[in-house]
Amino acid sequence: MARFIFITGGVVSSLGKGLSSASLGALLQSHGYTVRLRKLDPYLNVDPGTMNPIQHGEVFVTDDGAETDLDLGHYERFTGVSATKYDNITSGRIYQNIIQKERRGDYLGGTVQVIPHVTDAIKDFVLDHSDDVDFLLCEIGGTVGDIEALPFFEAIRQLRNELGHENCIFIHLTLLPFIAAAGELKTKPTQHSVKELTSIGIQPDIIVLRCDREIPEDERKKISSFCNVPFRRIIPAVDVKNIYDVPMNLHKNGFDFEVLKLFNINRKTKPDLSRWIQISKNANSIENNVNITIVGKYVQLKDAYKSLDEALYHAGLINKIKVNIDWLDSEILENTHILDHLNNTDAILVPGGFGQRGSEGKIKAINFARERKIPYLGICFGMQMAIIELSRSLLGLENASTTEFGTTEHPVVDLMTEWKKGKSVEKRDENTDLGGTMRLGAYEAVLSEGSKVASIYNMNKISERHRHRWEANIFYKESLEKKGVLFSGMSPDGKLPEIIELLDHPWFVAVQFHPELKSRPFDPHPLFVSYVLAALEKSRLV
Ligand code: GLN
Fold first, then answer.
1. What is the pLDDT of residues 285-324, one digit of tens each?
2. Which domains does the chain have, with CATH numbers?
């Protein structure tokens, strides 16, 4: 059976609970253990799939097609373990399942209640598919005291009782704020947060303190004494420059050893932290810089493109290149001169997106990248906009567009009503619900021999994650090919274009999937590595 580690947060949200959980997962791996990370989200949406990225950040898609919280991206990037649909649940989904059962009559006339029905459903979720790992780390979203999170806290309290203290620990992450006027770090918010936690029956075993400066021993002692946690288990987590330094930083403060000791494991051998040491070394020996412009719609919030930001960072790091990203709102491009924004860029990227607003700005940027021979990477919507640009400019179809924006004379990007998933066929139409109904998760693509992408991936069949409803319309493939657009990646049945590239261009590749979701700091995605190198080459031409 797996050992369980529950991570809760207090004082404020956005403290980096996801990063701390992911880092602990990585540290346990460095001791030779297998891990899986899970997230329990208290909000009422069934999944984050229909939520606005500006509010919630990116939607992270798993291989098996679940639309999940962006913290699962951190988990994958730090541990290299691919998440699944068993790794993220919301109150909304729990209630949806319970209500469906109630309507079916499964409760045999009983009264359905938060305790035991909701808490049991949460416990079942935590325990499901957990047998194959040494440690299961489970993060509770939000902060202690949130009304909607109460059933989750109650469920993990019960689990600790059922699984036994030797198989289950609680870690609480809080903030130690510095009050400038007093010139002091304040421990009171942490004390209150732990008080709140103990009032619902959870005594933390370890407290991790986020702070923007070194934490004096006295403050740690105070927290130890007031919160009833031994001093060595009050772990400082002082801000670091690079998120990939977090595992090493927590390790230096004894985090992993304290966790293992709580499970009665006394490690004599040293953990293998070489991967994190190497990343930190590369980050400190940058030799080159490139400037990449991302032309998107949700540029106000970096978390909306979290995996993309990380994938570019990983791709730069391996070649000691610092990737500077200019986040450009595509709507601005529609009414201003393009040279004001893109004159000094080394590469252009149009990421995933939804809806018509700002799309003409993206098309303008793609046109600029194509004509000026600036490296271009189009991702999902960025490939669909490229198809529109190429159809307009190379085929002279002035009104070429996507049916996502309404009916059009030349639907060069069109809604898919039917496609193959493994051996089954998925069907959709205009009336299908929005949630969970896109082409989601891992699909294979066959790459054309001799193409740029085949040499980048160094293989001829790939699997990448998808999240979209529309597809490049194969009806226009032949005419585009005649103009030098190579459809270099296709679905195995040859019906869905997965990748296009331009023959007469140094680096113009657009993909229907989301390669950024599979990039890891110690295993950067080949497409991004190649793209960043192309940007470097471009920067040297100027
Ligand atoms: N809006 C487009 C579609 O649904 C692209 C989606 C995306 O970029 N993820 O097909």
1. 999 999 999 999 888 888 899 999 999 999 999 999 999 9
2. 3-279 (3.40.50.300), 286-414+471-541 (3.40.50.880)
